[in-house]
Amino acid sequence: MKSEADLQQLLSFVEFTHLAHKVERVARINGMDRYANMVEHSYQLALIAWYLVEKEGLALNKDLVLRYALVHDLVEVYAGDTYFYDSEAAKTKEKREQEALRTLKKTIPEFKELHETISEYEKKNDSESRFVYALDKIIDPLNIYLEGGKLWHEKKITLPMLIEKKVNKVKLNPTVQEYFDTLVEQLKEQEAQLFYAK
Asked: In which element (H, E) is residue 64 found?
């Protein structure tokens, strides 16, 4: 039988996972009026990453890919989400996220592998982290494309803005870059319908 202290640690971690549900992102779930939360986004990223590793026969460690996908935004529990096109918030993003990681380590000190996985993901030193990072950058465009560009119109995003923000990030993985390049060609064909026109 586990001690009351062990149960309390588990309960505290469960409470922490609840915080992740409260982090709202500026991206919708297709067919819904509300924005997705961090848990929904991370779960979708993990599933799509697993799918692509299998479909494309990528020589990547699936376990590591899934762990990176699950933790890639976890510091946002304390740092908050930074909207991709918010240049002011981007200036403080790194500092906020470093502080958030320190808070996370203090809050859940017993989960050392979690902290190590987040730190390794942030370094982008292995193929798995670069794959997850690049894939993360095309998830929102894929979702927005599936909803007919609604969010791009609402947020006044043009196709050149999208390409400029994404092109160097997707280059971290050649497979993701190929998917992005193909997506961009489709977006160009439907640019007038999908994107905001100045």
From this structure: helix 62-71
Q: How confident is the model at residue 80 (pLDDT cuts 50, 70, 90)?
A: confident
Domain ranges of the chain: 7-194
The contacts of residue 3 (CB under 8 Å, 6+ apart) are none
Domain 7-194 architecture: Orthogonal Bundle (1.10)
Strand partners for 37: 24
Of 40, 46, 14, nearest in space to 25 by CA: 40
Buried b (16+ CB within 10 A) or exposed e, 101-138: beebeeeeeeeeebbebbebbbeeeebbbbbbbbbbbb
Q: Is the torsion defined by CA of 48, 95, 163, 155 positive or negative?
A: positive
In the 8-state DSSP scheme, what is residue 103? H
Q: Based on the number of CB atoms within 10 Å of its own CB, is 183 exposed (0-12), middle (13-18) or buried (19 or more)? A: middle
C-beta of residue 131 within 8 angstroms of C-beta of residue 58: yes
Tokens of 39: 């848990």
> Across residues 70-93, what is the average pLDDT?
87
